[in-house]
Description:
By secondary structure, this protein is an alpha/beta fold. The chain has helices at residues 15-29, 39-42, 49-54, 59-69, 87-95, 118-129, 155-178, and strands at 2-7, 33-38, 73-79, 105-111, 133-134, 139-141.
Amino acid sequence: MKVMILVGSADATSHSLGLGKAIEAKLKALGATVEFINLVEYGLPLYDRRIERAESQDETTKVFLQKSLEMDAFVWLTPIYHNSFSSMLKNALDWHHSTKFPGKVVGLASNGGHRSPQAVDQLMIVARSQGLVTIPTRICTDESDYNEQFEITDNNIIERVDRFSHELVDFVNKHTVAS
Ligand SMILES: Cc1cc2nc3c(=O)[nH]c(=O)nc-3n(C[C@H](O)[C@H](O)[C@H](O)COP(=O)(O)O)c2cc1C
């Protein structure tokens, strides 16, 4: 199975990135192929509907959309920005307007706001608009759950990353068997 991890922090090195790396390691151990995208470094342009209508996307966006279509599942990671998810992540998801992923699977995770679930709650509604099935386990961390190298140190979060990753793989496998 193929999973795209989208990291939405505006910091190149971030807690969200550390969380994404932990999830990536677990998913790979479970046999998944991971397409890891740290959006702040990836260089997607601002979503522009004229470009989408004309299908004149630049090479980066075209590759992003093509790869996205090949995925069985996604992981969306965001910092808490203004009680919500980041514009960087939303921009990437807006580019997905021309694709949609009916029946595919997404896992949601965030960092910030004292483990606030605000962003992942809001992302559930976004997932529904793309036809994605959201796994029940979400991961909400805060800065104190990490060391200075952005590695997770909190045992409850480590356990949650494990559960989250197994659930994502299970959901994809169940869906594949059923369809
Ligand atoms: C634009 C912006 C908005 C933010 N808004 C909030 C907020 O509403 N509530 C909060 O608790 N922290 C807020 N923060 C702090 C971030 O959630 C915090 O720095 C978090 O650790 C960033 O995660 P990251 O390291 O994964 O980027 C904001 C930070 C930025 C840059």
